[in-house]
Design goal:
Layout: H1 4-19, H2 30-36, E1 39-44, E2 47-53, H3 54-59, H4 64-71, E3 101-104, E4 108-111
Antiparallel strand pairs: 1-2, 3-4
């Protein structure tokens, strides 16, 4: 038996196929985003940091924060957690203390103009 979440996601897929619908799907569950989305926007501290086809974000993320998110997805087939994290959670900058350039992790800098639609 499928979970309620799986049933709803399958219904959304069916409606999209049958009616040609488009969705703006907002989620923190990247495994669901991967399943549901053709195109992904990753936000960091309230700003777009990457806009790309979903497959590209998961195979070759173009931004350090996107890469960190992708590495945080657990692999249910793995016997142990072999994910390589880019930064420890304690290294993320505070959203309260914003500067022109926001430091991501240890020494990785990103410009707020990284993503251009």
């Amino acid at each position: 038996m499928f979970s309620v979440q799986a049933q709803v996601l399958n219904l959304l897929d069916q409606l999209r196929s049958e009616l040609g619908l488009s969705y703006l799907f907002i989620s923190h569950d990247l495994s669901v985003v991967k399943h549901q989305s053709d195109r992904v926007i990753v936000m960091y501290l309230g700003k777009f940091c990457e806009i790309a086809p979903a497959a590209d974000v998961y195979v070759a993320p173009g931004h350090p924060y996107s890469a960190e998110l992708v590495t945080s997805i657990p692999d249910p087939r793995a016997k142990q957690d072999n994910r390589r994290r880019l930064v420890d959670r304690g290294d993320l900058p505070s959203p309260v203390d914003r500067h022109r350039d926001v430091v991501f992790g240890r020494g990785v800098r990103m410009s707020r103009t990284f993503a251009r639609p």
